[in-house]
Amino acid sequence: AQKITQTQPGMFVQEKEAVTLDCTYDTSDQSYGLFWYKQPSSGEMIFLIYQGSYDEQNATEGRYSLNFQKARKSANLVISASQLGDSAMYFCAMREYTGNQFYFGTGTSLTVIP
Amino acid sequence: DAGVTQSPTHLIKTRGQQVTLRCSPKSGHDTVSWYQQALGQGPQFIFQYYEEEERQRGNFPDRFSGHQFPNYSSELNVNALLLGDSALYLCASSLGRTPASGYTFGSGTRLTVV
Q1: Nearest chain B Cα distance for residue A42, angstroms
Q2: What are the distances in angstroms from CA A51 to CA A31, A61, A76, B49?
Q3: Is B100 within 8 Å of A103 (Cβ atoms)?
Q4: Which residues contact B63 (CB under 8 A, 6 or more apart)?
């Protein structure tokens, strides 16, 4: 079974608008972390935001927020006030704290339109 | 402060050959993880090194091996290359068992097997 599912291969958003990128996860562990990374064409994975499984409040980092719905096992990324530089691949990932590896989804390609 | 440095950036090898990829972790980090990212896919965990030992391994054949040196730098070796080994190989460094914000990725080595 897939640990991380991203169902949106590609998304378009108008500059200055908000966009939501979907992510669902699958784990039987109680302790885990959920992450979003941005990957521009250069290849580097850039950390955006982190949510721990025991965190009651949704994480926020500047224009990024994570909509964490534990019962639904979803961890959607919301980008507010989109900028042209936000155009990139976005990956949702999970680390179960019983292990050391990250499980990544297949990614969503975001294009910001001027 | 230098981040994660990977070399070479690009590499072309012939099927059946062997390849060595190198990674220098971010200053202060002692743990190195390697990921394979095939075209259009999310990164897949290969293995993690800590204190010069392989701490965890993903679902990759023994053709994939690694090493960590006393200065925490690491090598990924792939023997008997197959066409399917063509991918972006990402190195990530961290300090012990830290949350995601402590994982720093390099820009990767793009390996093409012909």
Answers
A1: 7
A2: 11, 11, 11, 25
A3: no
A4: B78, B79, B80
Whole-Å CA distances, B76 to A96, B34, B83: 24, 8, 17
Q: Which residues of chain A have a CB within 8 Å of the CB of B110?
A: 43
User: CA angle A38-A44-A48, nearest 5°?
Assistant: 30
Of all residues in chain B, what percent carry a pLDDT higher than 90?
Answer: 86
Chain A residues close to B109, C-beta within 8 Å: none
**Cα(A76)–Cα(A56) distance, integer angstroms:** 15
CA of A96, closest CA in chain B: separation in Å?
A: 11
d(CA B114, CA B13): 6
* Confidence check: pLDDT of B1 > 60: no
Residue B15's alpha-carbon distances to A86, A97, B19, B96, B109, in angstroms, are 37, 37, 11, 36, 17
Q: With 70 as the cut, is the pLDDT of residue B97 above it?
A: no
How does residue B101 score in pLDDT terms, banded at 50, 70 and 90?
A: low
